[in-house]
From TrEMBL:
Membrane topology (UniProt): Single-pass type II membrane protein
Entry keyword set: Disulfide bond, Glycoprotein, Glycosyltransferase, Golgi apparatus, Membrane, Signal-anchor, Transferase, Transmembrane, Transmembrane helix
Family note: Belongs to the glycosyltransferase 29 family.
GO cellular component: Golgi membrane
Subcellular location: Golgi apparatus membrane
UniProt source species: Sinocyclocheilus grahami
Descriptive protein name: alpha-N-acetylgalactosaminide alpha-2,6-sialyltransferase
Pathway this chain belongs to: Protein modification; protein glycosylation
Enzyme Commission (EC) number: 2.4.3.3
S-S bonds: 125-209
Lineage: Eukaryota, Metazoa, Chordata, Craniata, Vertebrata
Catalytic activity: a 3-O-[N-acetyl-alpha-D-galactosaminyl]-L-threonyl-[protein] + CMP-N-acetyl-beta-neuraminate = a 3-O-[N-acetyl-alpha-neuraminosyl-(2->6)-N-acetyl-alpha-D-galactosaminyl]-L-threonyl-[protein] + CMP + H(+); a 3-O-[N-acetyl-alpha-neuraminyl-(2->3)-beta-D-galactosyl-(1->3)-N-acetyl-alpha-D-galactosaminyl]-L-threonyl-[protein] + CMP-N-acetyl-beta-neuraminate = a 3-O-{alpha-Neu5Ac-(2->3)-beta-D-Gal-(1->3)-[alpha-Neu5Ac-(2->6)]-alpha-D-GalNAc}-L-threonyl-[protein] + CMP + H(+); a beta-D-galactosyl-(1->3)-N-acetyl-alpha-D-galactosaminyl derivative + CMP-N-acetyl-beta-neuraminate = a beta-D-galactosyl-(1->3)-[N-acetyl-alpha-neuraminyl-(2->6)]-N-acetyl-alpha-D-galactosaminyl derivative + CMP + H(+)
Gene Ontology MF annotations: alpha-N-acetylgalactosaminide alpha-2,6-sialyltransferase activity
Amino acid sequence: TSDKAKSIISSLKPVAKPTEPDFFGDWYATDDVPSQTNCPNNIRKRVPQTQFAEMFLHNIPVLQWAKHFTPEEYQRLRHYGGAHGWGGVSAEVLNSSLGILNTPANRLMFDDWENSANGSKCIRCAVVGNGGILNGSRKGKEIDEHDYVFRVNGAALKGMFFILFGLRSLTLSFSSSRFLHSRLLKTGARRIYRPSTGAVMLLAAIHTCDQVDAYGFMTPDYRLYSDHYYDKQQHPVHFYANHDMRMEMRLWQELHNAGLMNLFMSK
Ligand SMILES: *[C@@H]1O[C@H](CO)[C@@H](O)[C@H](O)[C@H]1NC(C)=O
Ligand SMILES: *[C@@H]1O[C@H](CO)[C@@H](O)[C@H](O)[C@H]1NC(C)=O
Ligand SMILES: *[C@@H]1O[C@H](CO)[C@@H](O)[C@H](O)[C@H]1NC(C)=O
């Protein structure tokens, strides 16, 4: 666990006594992906000057592909259930699913970049959450002008299954161990705790894009907005037991203030 996460944990009182040692561990596979651009001032180059220098792993694989399935990795990750690991999934199913993603191109989130870049030198990503702040914000055009747009409520998104499957375990445990080590992990709620899908997407984007703009993520003035931008009637933000949205909100503020992403904050 990084010092940062430790300080966050020690600043919060656990709600109940810890019953198990650290749930996820802090061990990850690595992928050495060469940079796809010559972007002069990208996130990776700025990280060392920020308080996130130690937490940020430059070679974390944000997507899983065939290379990551080994008998040793299966033995390790099968102890973690739910979205964090491979518990409850048979080795055969995993091997054949990840086996479909069997070329090194699958480690690249943006394997069409070379063809679609049009001379642009930096990969600019927009990550779009569900927040009510987006209602009437007129941000549509600005969002569409990014090279890649990640949408969180992406039921209709092509390839969403593979993205979520690929993000499973590696990025999710990475997100909670390093960036969102909630106090819930020290309580009985640790079995259901996970970062929100939006948080995992945003952290994945920060680890792969050159620039990230986040829209529709929770801001300190969340009480002014409805829970979701698509709500038919205004209703207050809902906090679920399996997420720690206040902690996520604090992290977005810190990443924004550190200059590692730009968070859309008021209409
Ligand atoms: C995974 O499947 C491939 C065939 O697609 C096979 O060659 C390989 O031995 C399998 N690996 C494991 C660990 O089961
Ligand atoms: C690149 O340029 C072509 C031709 O002008 C255009 O059709 C395409 O949409 C552009 N792609 C991007 C990502 O801007
Ligand atoms: C969305 O914005 C419109 C126009 O400002 C407003 O009438 C409506 O109540 C808003 N919806 C929600 C759920 O906040």
